[in-house]
Protein backbone atom coordinates (compact mmCIF):
# COMPACT_ATOMS: atom_id res chain seq x y z
CA UNK A 1 0.00 0.00 0.00
CA UNK A 2 1.26 3.43 -0.87
CA UNK A 3 2.11 5.76 2.01
CA UNK A 4 -0.72 8.02 3.19
CA UNK A 5 0.99 11.14 1.91
CA UNK A 6 1.26 9.61 -1.60
CA UNK A 7 -2.44 8.65 -1.60
CA UNK A 8 -3.38 12.17 -0.54
CA UNK A 9 -1.17 13.52 -3.30
CA UNK A 10 -2.92 11.33 -5.88
CA UNK A 11 -6.33 12.40 -4.59
CA UNK A 12 -5.40 16.03 -4.95
CA UNK A 13 -4.04 15.42 -8.41
CA UNK A 14 -7.20 13.58 -9.47
CA UNK A 15 -9.37 16.60 -8.69
CA UNK A 16 -7.09 18.79 -10.74
CA UNK A 17 -7.09 16.26 -13.60
CA UNK A 18 -10.85 15.73 -13.55
CA UNK A 19 -11.42 19.44 -14.02
CA UNK A 20 -9.14 19.73 -17.05
CA UNK A 21 -11.92 19.08 -19.64
CA UNK A 22 -13.96 21.90 -18.12
CA UNK A 23 -11.26 24.53 -18.47
CA UNK A 24 -12.06 27.20 -21.04
CA UNK A 25 -9.46 28.42 -23.52
CA UNK A 26 -8.23 31.99 -23.47
CA UNK A 27 -10.19 32.63 -26.69
CA UNK A 28 -13.42 31.39 -25.09
CA UNK A 29 -12.84 33.51 -22.01
CA UNK A 30 -12.11 36.59 -24.11
CA UNK A 31 -15.32 36.08 -26.11
CA UNK A 32 -17.36 35.61 -22.94
CA UNK A 33 -15.80 38.62 -21.26
CA UNK A 34 -16.36 40.85 -24.31
CA UNK A 35 -20.08 40.05 -24.20
CA UNK A 36 -20.22 41.01 -20.54
CA UNK A 37 -18.47 44.28 -21.26
CA UNK A 38 -21.17 45.57 -23.60
CA UNK A 39 -21.96 48.36 -21.18
CA UNK A 40 -23.16 51.81 -22.18
CA UNK A 41 -22.32 53.28 -18.77
CA UNK A 42 -19.84 56.12 -18.43
CA UNK A 43 -18.32 57.76 -15.36
CA UNK A 44 -21.36 60.06 -15.12
CA UNK A 45 -24.22 58.53 -17.11
CA UNK A 46 -25.30 55.17 -15.72
CA UNK A 47 -28.10 52.61 -15.61
CA UNK A 48 -28.95 51.30 -12.16
CA UNK A 49 -28.45 47.54 -11.75
CA UNK A 50 -31.28 47.32 -9.24
CA UNK A 51 -34.14 49.47 -10.56
CA UNK A 52 -32.92 49.76 -14.20
CA UNK A 53 -33.43 53.53 -14.24
CA UNK A 54 -30.97 55.65 -16.23
CA UNK A 55 -29.48 58.45 -14.19
CA UNK A 56 -26.57 60.83 -13.86
CA UNK A 57 -24.05 60.47 -11.04
CA UNK A 58 -23.87 63.68 -9.01
CA UNK A 59 -21.17 64.33 -6.44
CA UNK A 60 -21.46 66.35 -3.24
CA UNK A 61 -17.71 66.44 -2.71
CA UNK A 62 -14.69 64.66 -4.08
CA UNK A 63 -15.51 60.97 -4.31
CA UNK A 64 -18.77 61.23 -2.34
CA UNK A 65 -21.99 60.84 -4.37
CA UNK A 66 -25.08 62.90 -3.69
CA UNK A 67 -27.91 60.87 -2.09
CA UNK A 68 -31.22 60.59 -3.93
CA UNK A 69 -34.15 62.77 -2.99
CA UNK A 70 -36.51 61.01 -0.55
CA UNK A 71 -39.30 61.24 -3.13
CA UNK A 72 -37.15 59.67 -5.82
CA UNK A 73 -35.41 56.75 -4.12
CA UNK A 74 -34.08 53.63 -5.82
CA UNK A 75 -36.91 51.04 -5.63
CA UNK A 76 -36.20 47.37 -6.24
CA UNK A 77 -36.53 43.76 -5.09
CA UNK A 78 -33.50 42.83 -2.99
CA UNK A 79 -33.59 39.10 -3.86
CA UNK A 80 -33.89 37.31 -7.15
CA UNK A 81 -36.82 35.37 -8.55
CA UNK A 82 -37.17 31.78 -7.28
CA UNK A 83 -39.14 28.94 -8.86
CA UNK A 84 -41.66 27.11 -6.71
CA UNK A 85 -42.59 23.76 -8.23
CA UNK A 86 -45.84 23.68 -6.30
CA UNK A 87 -47.96 25.49 -7.44
CA UNK A 88 -45.67 25.95 -10.45
CA UNK A 89 -44.89 29.64 -10.17
CA UNK A 90 -42.07 32.10 -9.77
CA UNK A 91 -41.84 34.51 -6.86
CA UNK A 92 -39.47 37.10 -5.39
CA UNK A 93 -37.55 35.51 -2.51
CA UNK A 94 -37.36 38.83 -0.64
CA UNK A 95 -41.10 39.45 -0.27
CA UNK A 96 -42.83 36.39 -1.78
CA UNK A 97 -44.54 38.52 -4.43
CA UNK A 98 -45.83 36.43 -7.31
CA UNK A 99 -43.63 37.07 -10.34
CA UNK A 100 -46.04 35.23 -12.64
CA UNK A 101 -48.78 37.73 -11.88
CA UNK A 102 -46.42 40.52 -12.91
CA UNK A 103 -45.38 38.99 -16.23
CA UNK A 104 -48.57 37.22 -17.30
CA UNK A 105 -51.23 39.64 -16.20
CA UNK A 106 -49.44 42.96 -16.55
CA UNK A 107 -49.76 43.82 -12.89
CA UNK A 108 -47.24 46.21 -11.43
CA UNK A 109 -45.62 44.61 -8.39
CA UNK A 110 -44.47 47.28 -5.99
CA UNK A 111 -40.76 46.88 -5.15
CA UNK A 112 -40.24 45.89 -1.53
CA UNK A 113 -36.95 47.71 -0.92
CA UNK A 114 -35.75 51.30 -1.25
CA UNK A 115 -32.29 52.85 -1.02
CA UNK A 116 -30.96 56.38 -1.15
CA UNK A 117 -28.38 55.49 -3.84
CA UNK A 118 -28.53 53.83 -7.22
CA UNK A 119 -25.95 51.11 -7.92
CA UNK A 120 -24.15 50.91 -11.24
CA UNK A 121 -20.76 50.14 -12.70
CA UNK A 122 -18.16 52.58 -13.94
CA UNK A 123 -16.50 50.45 -16.67
CA UNK A 124 -13.36 52.58 -16.74
CA UNK A 125 -12.64 51.83 -13.07
CA UNK A 126 -12.47 48.06 -13.56
CA UNK A 127 -10.22 48.35 -16.61
CA UNK A 128 -7.39 49.99 -14.68
CA UNK A 129 -4.96 48.19 -12.37
CA UNK A 130 -5.64 44.68 -13.69
CA UNK A 131 -3.05 41.99 -12.87
CA UNK A 132 -2.59 38.60 -14.55
CA UNK A 133 -1.54 35.21 -13.24
CA UNK A 134 0.40 34.84 -16.50
CA UNK A 135 2.89 37.36 -15.12
CA UNK A 136 3.28 35.39 -11.88
CA UNK A 137 6.33 33.15 -12.03
CA UNK A 138 6.23 29.52 -11.06
CA UNK A 139 3.69 26.71 -11.11
CA UNK A 140 0.92 25.71 -8.71
CA UNK A 141 -1.24 22.90 -10.10
CA UNK A 142 -3.95 22.94 -7.48
CA UNK A 143 -7.63 23.82 -7.23
CA UNK A 144 -8.80 26.75 -5.12
CA UNK A 145 -12.30 27.94 -4.30
CA UNK A 146 -12.43 31.72 -4.47
CA UNK A 147 -15.05 33.70 -2.56
CA UNK A 148 -15.41 37.46 -2.46
CA UNK A 149 -17.84 39.53 -0.44
CA UNK A 150 -18.83 42.59 -2.42
CA UNK A 151 -20.06 45.98 -1.29
CA UNK A 152 -21.57 48.64 -3.52
CA UNK A 153 -19.51 51.76 -4.12
CA UNK A 154 -19.73 54.67 -6.51
CA UNK A 155 -17.62 52.55 -8.89
CA UNK A 156 -19.90 49.49 -8.77
CA UNK A 157 -19.43 46.27 -6.79
CA UNK A 158 -15.98 46.27 -5.18
CA UNK A 159 -14.41 43.49 -3.13
CA UNK A 160 -14.40 44.04 0.64
CA UNK A 161 -13.32 40.56 1.73
CA UNK A 162 -11.60 37.74 -0.15
CA UNK A 163 -11.18 34.11 0.88
CA UNK A 164 -9.16 31.39 -0.84
CA UNK A 165 -9.86 27.76 0.16
CA UNK A 166 -7.85 24.72 -0.94
CA UNK A 167 -8.96 21.18 -1.86
CA UNK A 168 -8.93 20.10 1.79
CA UNK A 169 -11.36 22.87 2.76
CA UNK A 170 -8.56 24.79 4.44
CA UNK A 171 -8.50 28.58 4.26
CA UNK A 172 -5.12 29.44 2.75
CA UNK A 173 -5.75 33.16 2.45
CA UNK A 174 -8.29 35.65 3.77
CA UNK A 175 -8.28 39.41 4.08
CA UNK A 176 -10.54 42.42 4.31
CA UNK A 177 -10.08 44.71 1.32
CA UNK A 178 -10.49 48.47 1.47
CA UNK A 179 -12.62 49.58 -1.52
CA UNK A 180 -11.27 52.48 -3.54
CA UNK A 181 -14.67 54.11 -3.99
CA UNK A 182 -17.07 55.60 -1.45
CA UNK A 183 -19.21 52.79 0.00
CA UNK A 184 -22.92 53.36 -0.57
CA UNK A 185 -24.22 49.94 0.54
CA UNK A 186 -22.39 47.30 2.61
CA UNK A 187 -25.01 44.69 1.56
CA UNK A 188 -24.72 43.26 5.06
CA UNK A 189 -27.67 40.89 4.61
CA UNK A 190 -25.65 39.02 1.97
CA UNK A 191 -22.01 39.74 2.80
CA UNK A 192 -22.07 39.88 6.59
CA UNK A 193 -19.82 42.92 6.27
CA UNK A 194 -20.68 45.99 8.35
CA UNK A 195 -19.27 49.49 8.60
CA UNK A 196 -17.79 48.57 12.00
CA UNK A 197 -16.00 45.52 10.60
CA UNK A 198 -14.40 47.58 7.85
CA UNK A 199 -13.43 50.40 10.21
CA UNK A 200 -11.92 48.03 12.79
CA UNK A 201 -9.98 46.14 10.13
CA UNK A 202 -7.27 45.33 9.51
CA UNK A 203 -7.87 46.06 5.83
CA UNK A 204 -5.44 45.78 2.96
CA UNK A 205 -5.48 47.78 -0.24
CA UNK A 206 -6.55 46.01 -3.41
CA UNK A 207 -2.98 46.22 -4.70
CA UNK A 208 -1.67 44.46 -1.58
CA UNK A 209 -4.30 41.73 -1.93
CA UNK A 210 -3.46 41.25 -5.61
CA UNK A 211 0.20 40.77 -4.72
CA UNK A 212 -0.74 38.25 -2.02
CA UNK A 213 -3.07 36.27 -4.28
CA UNK A 214 -0.52 35.96 -7.07
CA UNK A 215 1.69 34.03 -4.65
CA UNK A 216 -0.97 31.29 -4.76
CA UNK A 217 -2.60 31.77 -8.16
CA UNK A 218 -0.36 30.85 -11.07
CA UNK A 219 -1.13 30.42 -14.76
CA UNK A 220 -1.82 26.69 -14.26
CA UNK A 221 -3.94 27.08 -11.09
CA UNK A 222 -7.65 26.24 -11.30
CA UNK A 223 -10.10 28.61 -9.62
CA UNK A 224 -13.70 27.72 -8.81
CA UNK A 225 -16.49 29.81 -7.38
CA UNK A 226 -20.08 30.93 -7.66
CA UNK A 227 -20.22 33.90 -10.05
CA UNK A 228 -16.45 33.76 -10.31
CA UNK A 229 -16.41 36.30 -13.13
CA UNK A 230 -17.77 38.90 -10.70
CA UNK A 231 -15.22 37.83 -8.08
CA UNK A 232 -12.27 38.21 -10.46
CA UNK A 233 -13.62 41.49 -11.84
CA UNK A 234 -13.85 42.94 -8.33
CA UNK A 235 -10.26 41.82 -7.66
CA UNK A 236 -9.08 43.07 -11.07
CA UNK A 237 -7.38 39.71 -11.66
From TrEMBL:
- Cellular localisation: Nucleus
Q: Domain of life, per the record?
A: Eukaryota
What's the protein here called? Answer: Exonuclease domain-containing protein
Which GO molecular function, any one, fits this protein according to its record?
exonuclease activity
Q: Which organism is it from?
A: Cloeon dipterum
Which residue ranges does the record assign to the Exonuclease domain? 160-227
Q: Which InterPro entries match?
A: REXO1/3/4-like, Ribonucl_H, RNaseH-like_sf, RNaseH_sf
- Which family, according to the similarity comment? Belongs to the REXO1/REXO3 family.
Q: Which UniProt keywords apply?
A: Hydrolase, Nuclease, Nucleus
Where does it primarily localize?
A: nucleus
Instruction: List cellular component terms (GO).
Output: nucleus
Amino acid sequence: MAPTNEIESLQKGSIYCMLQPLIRSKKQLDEYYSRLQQNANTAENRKCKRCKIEYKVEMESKGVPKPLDENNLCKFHSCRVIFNKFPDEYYYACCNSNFNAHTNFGRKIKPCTTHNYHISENPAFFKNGIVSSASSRGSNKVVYALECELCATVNGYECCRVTLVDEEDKVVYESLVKPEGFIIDYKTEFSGITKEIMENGPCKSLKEVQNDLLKFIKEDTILMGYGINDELTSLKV
